[in-house]
Structures are given as structure tokens and as C-alpha cells.
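Notebook entry, structure prediction.
Reason for the run: the old model in the group folder had no record of what sequence produced it. Starting over properly, with the input documented here first.
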Amino acid sequence: MDDGARMARGYVRIVAGAGFAVALLAVCYQVLWRYRCQNWGATPDEVALSLPGDELMPDADVVTTRVIAVRAPPEVVWPWIVQMGSGRAGAYTYDWLENLFGLDMHSADVILPQFQDVAAGQEFPLASGCGVMRVEGVDPERAYVLRFPEARLVWIFALRPEGNVTRLVSRNRIRTPVRSAAGRLGYALIMEPGSLIRERKMLLGIRERAERLASDRQQVSWPRAVS
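New structure, fully documented this time:
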């Protein structure tokens, strides 16, 4: 066998091995990890819960429901949510990463009064060329619904008092830009774990800020919350 044939066979083996590895990863993610990735911190009842804003995209390709328990009442959690946004109070995630895309995110550690009055129909511009964040619903201290038209995304926050904690629910309803089954799976493998990393950081950031504020105000002695 000449060198060219051996190189060709070696190339075929490499491609076949890479294809097998990708297929195995896809199967493992789908079977073992995807539910947990999509529903970090959520109980089965919370995953099935109907929330205001679900009706805005009933045919979503992907739905994630991620939840964290906060040792603070809803009125202390709420201000941190409604002030979020580009050029506003940031997103309490990884600012350096957000700003690589020009999103002008600078996570605030205090409540900013100028961003507290929100109403349905308001639009907050994102970075240049990234469209807007539109407020679709406001139920103070209960639910906050956003839509990102260009991103095909509806984002719902719900605050649910439960005993001595507030269960903060973050639900994303997403219509993916790809239509084939293989394309959707590839999209899921890349986007869903990435969104969990960012969203988990955001939820932890909101909890840290709200619990600190509740402690500073000495409203009540809340027991330790477990996500």
C-alpha cells in the first residue's frame, strides 16, 4: 500500500472516530443530562407549571425552567429583576463575556431607582444591531415577562413564596433558527449548556444581592435556602 492510500485510510479512521464521539456525546446529553440542564433547580411541578407569558410562544422548540430558592421575601427580590438589562443594571452574570458582544452589561450591586418603574409595552435597546428587550407583562412581585423578537425568545420570571423562602423561577421559551432534527440537536449541545452556565450565575447573583439586602434591612431571620 502506498503512502497516499495509508494517509487516506488514516483520515477516514479519524473522521469516523470523531463522528462516533460526537454521536455518543449527543446521545449521552439527550438521555442523561439534557433534562437537568434545561431544568436546573426546578421541581417537576415547577417544570410543568403554567406561567404568565407561556402563551406568547406556545410552539417553542426549547423550554427551560431554572429555579433558585432565595432567603428573602418577593418584595426584596423583585427590584433586582426589573432593573436588569443592557445599559441598565446588567444581568449579574459574567460581564466580561457579555461585553465581548458589545452588550454594555455592568452588574449593579445596589438597587437603581431610575430603573424600577417598568410597564408593559416598554422597550429597552440592547447593543447596536442586537434589537430590543420588550416588556410584555408586569405583575409586581409576582411575574415579569420579556420578549426578545430578533432572538425568538420569551423570558419569564416568576416569584413564588414558599414557606420562608421565595422560589425564583426563570423560564425561557425559545424558537431555534434551525429546523432539521440534526440541526436542533447541534444547537442544543452548544447553546443549552452555555445558557445554563450564564443563567445559573445570574440566579446566584440575584440571590446573593437579595439576601444581603434582606439582612441589611433586618426584615426577618430567614432559614438557609437550598437550591
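Summary: The chain has five helices and six strands.
The old model has been moved to the deprecated folder.
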